[in-house]
Design brief:
Layout lengths: L8 E3 L3 E6 L2 E6 L4 E5 L1 H11 L4 H12 L3 H17 L3 E3 L1
Antiparallel strand pairs: 1-5, 2-3, 3-4
Helix pairs in contact: 1-2, 1-3, 2-3
Length: 92
């Protein structure tokens, strides 16, 4: 199993998503529960689906949103944890 720095994820088969204005709506097709992601979380979600690692995504956050590296990494880890808990992200 990969560690947190090298882990890569993909969207679960039952996760559908669309970008609407500056937010991303993620729908769990199994439960009909949806999640609204702000611009920061949207960037993380898209890059996770593109196969980027948490450190790569945190770096992108620091550049796009002028956020401290530690805060960016915490944001990435939190979204990964939540989406894995909801079974919307699975290991690639």
């Amino acid at each position: 199993m990969a560690n947190k720095d090298t882990a890569r994820y993909k969207y679960a088969a039952h996760a559908a998503w669309r970008v609407v204005d500056e937010e991303t709506i993620v729908l769990d097709l199994n439960t009909s529960v949806y999640y609204s992601l702000n611009a920061t979380a949207s960037l993380v979600w898209k890059r996770l689906g593109d196969g980027e690692t948490a450190p790569e995504i945190a770096q992108a956050l620091t550049e796009a949103f002028d956020v401290a590296p530690e805060a960016a990494r915490a944001d990435v880890d939190e979204l990964v944890s939540e989406m894995r808990k909801e079974s919307l992200l699975v290991p690639a």
